[in-house]
Design brief:
Blueprint lengths: L3 H10 L3 E2 L6 E7 L4 E9 L12 E13 L5 E5 L5 E7 L2 E2 L4 H5 L4 H4 L8 H21 L3
Antiparallel strand pairs: 1-2, 2-3, 3-4, 4-5, 4-6, 6-7
Helix pairs in contact: 1-4
């Protein structure tokens, strides 16, 4: 079985890929063995209000992970609890990366989005690895 350190390294170093489609979903695929693949990704939460062009638009994202059968692609275990979330803000043509604070003033993310401060994969990789190792142990015991 894979060690926690190896799993954490794989979670952190495997590149995210944009999932085809119109939704903002990014995933990384980590083949743990010939039977199992771990999918770690994030997706934008559904928004039902259309933002105004000149107003700040906040996009909330949440991390999720799934253990799948690598042959059938059946989901064996999953965590879509939305415990680890982050957000981005946009205003006009400016995004967080453009230092939107310089345009609209200081932004306190705690006030504008459900903020977990777990936006980087390195912040949550050990938590993911712990849960995945439990899943793998459960599979090894034949309990599903």
């Amino acid at each position: 079985m894979i060690s926690k350190k190896e799993l954490v390294d794989s979670i952190e170093k495997t590149e995210l890929e944009k999932v085809q489609g119109i939704k903002d979903i990014w995933e990384k695929y980590i083949y743990l063995n010939k039977d199992n693949v771990l999918i770690v990704g994030y997706k934008e939460e559904e928004v039902y209000d259309k933002p105004e062009v000149e107003e700040e638009n906040i996009k909330n994202y949440y991390w999720y992970w799934e253990l799948r059968d690598s042959q059938s692609w059946d989901v064996l275990f999953e965590n879509h609890d939305k415990n680890f979330s982050f957000c981005e803000s946009e205003m006009g043509g400016y995004t967080d990366q453009d230092r939107i604070e310089d345009v609209v003033g200081d932004i306190d993310e705690g006030e504008i989005c459900k903020w977990s401060e777990k936006d980087w994969i390195e912040d949550i990789s050990e938590s993911i690895a712990d849960e995945v190792l439990i899943w793998l142990a459960t599979l090894k015991k034949g309990i599903l």
